[in-house]
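okkk here we go again. third time trying to get the zinc ion bound version out, last two times i messed up the smiles copy paste (missing a bracket lol). double checked this time i swear
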Amino acid sequence: MPELPEVQTVVDELLRAGIAGARIRAVDVLWRRSVAEPAANKFRASLAGRTIAACSRRGKFIVIDLAGGGHVLIHLRMTGRLILAAAEARREKHDRVVFRLAGGRELRLHDTRKFARVRLVADAAAALGALGPEPLAEDFTAECLRSRLARHRRMLKPLLLDQTFLAGLGNIYVDEALWEARLHPRAEAAALAAVQAAALHRAIRTVLVRGLRNRGTSLGRGKGNFVSPERRRGRNRAALAVFRRTGEPCPRCGAAIERLIVGQRATHVCPRCQKERGGPARGPGKAARG
Ligand SMILES: [Zn+2]
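finally!!
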């Protein structure tokens, strides 16, 4: 599922391709349920002739601002992809919504599993208001994270996946951040020491910035894997320490990575670096491999 680095990569490529300023000639809704609101007919009619003023990201949402008001929100969910194609390029079986742009291009939502959703709203702030802070925002400080963690007795993994707690993280980057910070996914949020919260804050930013630099994570070559609007795959897979690396050696200590289920989600940990009890694990240690 696309997370913050993948969604930001989509937005960056759309902007580079000149999406801001593009005029929408017409919209084709090929799978009606991909449009969450309003009804497909109204969606089509409301967008025809409108100009895209800006494109940005909030959490895992792509936000397209329309000149004169209104916003298109796109959530890619499991397998959604936004592809920019020449209008004459053959459409694909799983294209669900197509924005026909002036100048002979199309912005196509392609989605094999049909969970992706597009909505047209008048007030983006209201629609996105429940989202937690942006982890890469300047005002999201270590102290900000610490005070938010202190209010929750939940386990770290499900809490960090909760978009109202923090926006943009999903399974990949939460597992990577917890490994980076040497924290167990079942650790209780409120029980973290200030130094651990600070380590988690640093770790979240580290793994997200790395993911962004690598243009996102594509896990395989299957239809469901992330590709950008320019049909490029992310390069971040090689940089992952634990996610879907069960049985492989921890890059820090050499112990075999384990797979757990935490809050019903597959979770990957180093059993030596991320101790379930007894506070923060110690540093890598030369004898760790023994
Ligand atoms: Zn380790």
